[in-house]
Amino acid sequence: MTKLSSHITALFIVVALVCAFVPVFSVEEAEAKSLWNTCLVKITPKCALNIIWVVFGNGTLYESCCHGLVQEGKVCHDTLIKYIADRPSLIGRETQYLKKRDDLWSHCVSVSKTA
To answer: Which helix (H) or strand (E) holds 23?
Structure first.
């Protein structure tokens, strides 16, 4: 029961972070629903938070999250990180975040190939 509760809590945190970081005016409602249905459901909340922390903070990547990221797909990964990076409070650092996004993707692809 506590495991289910922690999963629900983690999912809530991911949803809250995405809502906080994604400007409402940049995502059409249908597009946001499409991203949710096709992208965010492919990765665990724990890994989604880890990836956000790696790209936008100084987090350390859990190698176990690389498989989920590659399963999510490059288009989903790029799109979601770009939406967060376009947040007005992050303007001026987009290039830095996009480089970290691309470096993370390359690393995860290589890790997934060797697994």
So the answer is: none
| Structural element, H or E, at residue 89 | none
Q: Among 39, 27, 106, which residue's Cα sits nearest to residue 72?
A: 39
Residue 115 has pLDDT above 70, yes or no: no
Within 13 Å, how many C-alpha atoms sit on residue 114's CB side?
8
Mean pLDDT calculated for residue range 9-16: 52
Q: What 3-state DSSP class applies to 100?
A: helix
pLDDT category of residue 65 using cuts at 50, 70 and 90? very high
Q: What is the pLDDT of residue 25?
A: 43
Distance CA 47, CA 61 (A): 9
Q: Are 68 and 5 in contact (CB under 8 A)?
A: no
Q: Phi and psi dihedrals of 65, rounded to 5?
A: -80, -15
In whole angstroms, what is the distance from residue 37 CA to residue 28 CA?
14
